[in-house]
Fold each of these.
Amino acid sequence: MSVLDNWQEWKSFLGTKLNQAATTGMDNETINNMAYQVGDYLANKVDPKNEQERVLSDLWSVASKEEQQAIASMMVKLVQNNGIR
């Protein structure tokens, strides 16, 4: 089973990776840039596996680059605030 199959597992996975990045001293700008790159890759290469991913994919497909960066930043905030439950 892939972490992409379940929304809660995906958020938990992202939260773990975010904590690892912060522990190594990575700053928020770098983390947000990496989140953007991951989001862009997923939007272009991976079919959404659940409803939440479908919504993110649909939003990403109509967003400008700046809006995509905002979406990525919000995903970072989401997992910082409540990703691991």
Amino acid sequence: MKSLQDYTIVIRPDDNGTFVAYVPAISGCHAWGQTADAARSELANVFDMIQQEYMEAGKALPEDVELLVANAS
């Protein structure tokens, strides 16, 4: 069984002073928090719920994706 640590996680500041955390490989796996740590903690809860939904549907979680990072110049 896969865990959140098997996935690339992106955490970035949001426009309103909070942070957003998400797993690009899993649609809908995203969360917000007042701090980066709070967003990551909430993301773990969201991941657990999504993982349970996949298990109940008899589906495997998707494979991780590779992110390409481009420098803004």
